[in-house]
Specification:
The chain has 423 residues and is of the alpha/beta class. It has 2 domains: 144 residues, 3-Layer(aba) Sandwich (Rossmann fold); 153 residues, NAD(P)-binding Rossmann-like Domain (Rossmann fold, 3-Layer(aba) Sandwich). Helix content is 46%, strand content 18%. The protein is built from 15 helices and 12 strands. The strands form 2 sheets. A 7-stranded mixed β-sheet has the order 9-8-7-6-10-11-12. Strands 1-2-4-3-5 form a 5-stranded mixed β-sheet, with helices on both faces. Helix 10 links the parallel strand 10 and strand 11. The longest helix has 26 residues. It starts with 5 loop residues before the first helix and ends with a helix. Bound molecules: nicotinamide-adenine-dinucleotide. The site of nicotinamide-adenine-dinucleotide has 19 residues, from helix 7 and strand 7.
Length: 423
């Protein structure tokens, strides 16, 4: 029995959407379970000459709309190897819904190795041998038309390049950049990947602002977290005329009602390692940060940040969930009653997977787009999905989180029904 089983949670979310869509039990079971989960042994000769065996996974949830897509993480969750298996199953299901919601012709996958390269002393050579052996073990089930992994927790473009190279050599020394995304630009990576998530969040906010007739010029923004997703969301919202008045990182939260210039905050954090102490700012608590009076709240750090108590005290008009799972289920009905628009994570942070898809398209064509071309294509996917989800939320009288799942599930179901079951 797995404690706080992540796959059970993922299945519960599906349950809600199936109820709204009146889906029968057999079909729901089909949509819930991954098509395939593989668990592999990764024996590696370490630098001291001894063999060490690692465990790796790949869960392929659904490919009714296209090849599986999803990250490979190197991590060691507290619950151990068994927990990790359930986690990748849940995350692969979630990738199916995420790809469907932004209308990417791909399905959901996720995988990884039970290993934390940040806390364990693993040399670069050991990490490469682990990565290449893992790539060898899953090479039969991945491929540009089968399953296309990407970076995730504690993996980078470096590991993606090693997986691409191993796969290409195993398949007769062929150049196969489309087997994986998140590659460095000279290895076939895409422009705009670095800004993708934050830019996508900013596009979502712009659409939400149109609905509630909020002028972005001068609108106040609060950012929780100050990493990749948050800084680019802040930067693009600033370009749209909004003003960041509070922000936070792992060391604390700061506020200045007159507003900050994002580039100055980035500069300060790079020099001092934290935002805390930024000239002219006042330090506040996390709760104060999240409940600051503002127009736009962007949680972009951790999961489970907005609980019922915080929800009751929220003073924003739009919440754009750049982080994964920042809002607890108990908070959703409270926020819905307060008529705050929540742009759910599955949409608000989908810019990353959108550009991963566009990287794969460019790899398959062998022709590469400019930054603006890539950003425009991503914008089209995100704004169209935003409008579809909003329309469904009105139709079913539910929040945008439920509407996003309804949209995703109905798109997968449509593809499944067109193909039918065979054999
Ligand atoms: P990151 O590591 O670049 O940044 C995380 C930031 O959160 C850091 O500034 C860190 O200081 C801050 N932080 C950590 N603990 C905090 C705390 N207790 N209070 C306030 N801030 C805290 O990570 P990221 O890539 O920006 O990812 C952030 C979130 O966005 C995660 O939930 C991630 O899953 C999600 N996300 C990111 C991407 C992406 O492409 N970057 C894509 C999809 C989802």
């Amino acid at each position: 029995m797995i404690k706080n089983d992540p796959f059970a949670n993922a299945t519960k979310q599906l349950d809600d959407a199936c109820k709204i869509l009146k889906i029968d039990k057999g079909t729901q079971d089909y949509l819930a379970m991954p098509n395939k989960i593989i668990r592999v042994k990764i024996p590696v000769k370490m630098d001291n000459g001894k063999i060490r065996v690692f465990t790796g996974f790949r869960s392929q949830h659904n490919n009714d709309r296209g090849p599986y897509k999803g990250g490979i993480r190197y991590f060691n969750p507290e619950g151990g190897v068994e927990y990790m298996e359930r986690e990748v199953m849940a995350l692969s299901a979630w990738m199916t819904w995420k790809c469907a919601v932004v209308d990417i012709p791909m399905g959901g996958g996720k995988g990884g190795i039970y290993l934390n390269p940040k806390t364990e002393k693993i040399s670069a050579g050991e990490l490469e041998r682990i990565t290449r052996r893992f790539a060898f073990m899953i090479s039969e089930i991945i491929g540009p038309q089968k399953d296309i992994p990407a970076p995730d927790v504690y993996t980078t473009g470096k590991e993606m390049t090693q997986i691409m190279d191993t796969f290409g050599k195993l398949h007769g020394v062929t150049y196969q950049p489309g087997v994986i995304t998140g590659k460095p630009i000279p290895m076939g990576g895409s422009l705009a990947r670095n800004v993708a998530t934050g830019l996508g969040t900013a596009y979502c906010v712009r659409e939400a602002a149109k609905i509630i007739k909020l002028k972005l010029k001068g609108a106040k923004v609060v950012l929780q977290g100050f990493g990749n997703a948050s800084t680019f969301a802040g930067e693009y919202l600033e370009k749209m005329g909004a003003k960041v008045i509070a922000a936070s990182d792992s060391k604390g939260s700061i506020i200045n009602p007159n507003g900050f210039k994002i580039s100055k905050l980035i500069e300060f954090k790079q020099k001092k390692g934290s935002l805390v102490g930024f000239p002219g700012s006042k330090k506040i608590s996390t709760e104060q940060l999240l409940t600051t009076k503002c127009e736009i709240l962007v949680p972009a750090a951790l999961e489970n940040q907005i609980n019922a108590k915080i929800a009751r005290n929220l003073k924003c008009k739009i919440i754009a969930e750049a982080a994964n799972g920042p809002t607890l289920p108990e908070a959703d009905p409270i926020i819905f009653k307060k008529k705050i628009i929540v742009i759910p994570d599955i949409l608000a942070n989908s810019g990353g997977v959108c550009i991963s898809y566009l990287e794969w398209v460019q790899n398959n064509m062998g022709y590469y787009w400019t930054f603006n071309e890539v950003a425009k294509k991503m914008e089209d996917h995100i704004t169209r999905s935003f409008r579809d989800i909003y329309a469904l939320s009105k139709k079913h009288k539910v929040d945008m989180r439920r509407a996003a799942m309804v949209l995703a599930v109905s798109r997968v179901l449509e593809a499944f029904n067109l193909k039918g079951l065979w054999p």
